[in-house]
């Protein structure tokens, strides 16, 4: 080899090194995650934080994710639009907040008398759930993934005893979404209030009742100090699935392994958050039992009426457009079907344990 | 810069490149996973395959995992020892197979009248479960992770109707582990048979009954062709957790991000396998309903007696040694405690849906 050729080869090798170092640097992404929860809010906010940390660690810092709590960049209910437009690459929220975009969104969090967490994951991962969810969100430039679950919620805090469906007439209750629509049809007055105002509203009698989440989150809010009864079960939200929404352009720019990393982190947080809620709800429930709160079950005939109203409202929703109908049919068919297995497995077992 | 110095610098840079390429090559690991299931066996074997693929993809081939079905390298019940000794880096199996190592192992898969999958994950991830499991397995040079769940199983296939506890006397049933011990105390004759021999044994009357898994796996075995009754619920295995065992030296040799990758892949397969079983059990159940099989619930008083026997057997086990006692107390305290939350959430909701 001539000296000049030798030098050129050496220089070429070095250049190669530099290019490779440069592309390595380019392969580092700094992502933002906006959420609908206060930063580190127990359960939900911790789940967002866990998801961000997991993506960062799994990718060995090739994606570093910084989490922003509600109102740090955008208000809680603008997460969807902000991620859709690319203001942040990731969002952590609940699909039922986006019913204004499409009523079909609600099926991907929770609907009254819907699926338990175990059934929901079966529908999402092994039936048509995620496929339909992706179809619905693709028009908004978003890719959705399940990324958490609170488990079956509680029915709520009441200062009025519910003995018959008539007791819901005129009841002012903080209950958003479909649960609120069902209450309205039963003669009640659903009220929308941000979390921070619930305690005072219940204390002053501005509202007669409120739902929130379950013992773990509700205890921290102190609601047991201003209510008489804590009702179950949470017929209106039997295990809301929490979502991670990913800006589609950001997702599609990822190499294959980073796509798998984002998907898998969501799956891990999905199971993790439910385990967190399950363990902590139980501890908080034990505390609540030591207070003056009376823990009561809604009467069966009240639940039966609420179920009938819920079914009719879901059926009404389905006429909204073609894709809502498709999602409604897939969801309700799966729910009515899975019941025969749940009946002889989980339900039967819990009844005899 | 003098020419010689310049050349030396260039050569140094190239040498650096070579070293870096070499360490890159060294960072590639080819791992083996031995399992207790036939290769690609529905549910369990597919879960092992999914876990291996996920580790490979998440790590972008820095760890490539090759799966071996039962008997390909070692028999199904030698997975524990083989991974412990470093013959393979990973194993996919069920902890109750290792009760000969320590009776405490059984608490990490499933025990009669134990936890549902949701409760089990709460105990493992957010109570003392995984910490105690690691403590137990560390003496075997293994690190355990939950990596799948079959959900609540079925009670089994019977050719004899069970109307009272007396009907269990003399009943020859293929039922391994603690379930078998309970049956024996109830006067039955537990039989151990490998999966491949069950069909013929039931057909020829060599056994009167057999448990297996649930509709999805049982249907594939054709057991509905040779039994009269399909009993529920699976009191003896209310949601076995499936394990991934990792050779401790192999795990500890990993850089931090690969450790997180292995842990997270296990978590993702944990939720995924249960979703798979839930969706497929339901489909298989619908098929079984179209056959001549009668699907029946065990009588309540039979279950009550089995529960009493189970509790006394678990209590006996706890006296084995210090760590078994510690695990027994953690598990049973968690179970008795979580019941108050499950009662007003999942159970109450399923009963009114």
Kindly describe this structure.
2 copies of one chain form a homodimer. Chain A has 353 residues and is of the alpha/beta class. Helix content of chain A is 51%, strand content 14%. Chain A is built from 12 helices and 11 strands. Chain A has helices at residues 3-26, 44-58, 79-84, 117-126, 129-138, 177-185, 195-204, 215-221, 248-252, 256-289, 300-317, 322-352, and strands at residues 29-35, 63-68, 90-93, 142-149, 156-158, 172-174, 189-191, 209-210, 229-232, 241-247, 294-297. In chain A, the strands form 2 sheets. In chain A, strands 7-6-8-5-9-11 form a 6-stranded mixed sheet. In chain A, helix 6 links the parallel strand 6 (172-174) and strand 7 (189-191). In chain A, helix 2 packs antiparallel against helix 10 (256-289), helix 6 (177-185) crosses helix 11 (300-317) and helix 8 (215-221) crosses helix 10 (256-289). Chain A starts with a helix and ends with a helix. Residues 6-24 of chain A have low confidence and may be disordered. Chains A and B meet through helix 1, helix 2, helix 4, helix 10 and helix 11 of A and helix 1, helix 2, helix 4, helix 10 and helix 11 of B.
Layout of SSEs?
Two copies of one chain form a homodimer.
Chain A: H1 3-26, E1 29-35, H2 44-58, E2 63-68, H3 79-84, E3 90-93, H4 117-126, H5 129-138, E4 142-149, E5 156-158, E6 172-174, H6 177-185, E7 189-191, H7 195-204, E8 209-210, H8 215-221, E9 229-232, E10 241-247, H9 248-252, H10 256-289, E11 294-297, H11 300-317, H12 322-352
Parallel strand pairs in A: 1-2, 1-3, 6-7, 6-8, 9-11
Antiparallel strand pairs in A: 3-10, 4-10, 5-8, 5-9
Helix pairs in contact in A: 2-10, 5-12, 6-11, 8-10
